[in-house]
Amino acid sequence: MRNFLLLVLIIIGSNVFGQSGGALNANQAAYDVKFYELDIVFDISYTQRSIDGSVLIRTEIIDPIDTLELDLWDTFTVDSVLVQKNDNIDSSMNFVHANKKLKVRIPGSSSAGDIVSARVYYHGTPRTASYPPWDDGF
User: What is the model's pTM?
Assistant: First the structure.
């Protein structure tokens, strides 16, 4: 019995650590993330701490939306965004980055079941963590 309870606690604990902890707004809940691909270069030296890279996010639309809303700290600069809906690629300059949110316009209208991918190129300096490793930042 004791081993069974220990196993249950481990399983519950592993599910807790797998969650982001952040609440989704209605726009973020309208799509299901299927895949992330990170391509990041860290420059961590005595004088500089920066990140330069890109992220590819592949989503499936659940409810029709016209914008993907992603989380990204304001300390990062978005260089460009490429959007692909089903098999149509669009070089998108239609994005807004403010208040820790990156809002990327989806070309055309989206329907449930559409596959939408976005590659975001960005760079910047992450904030310094007050209590590493328990909070965000370097």
Answer: 0.76
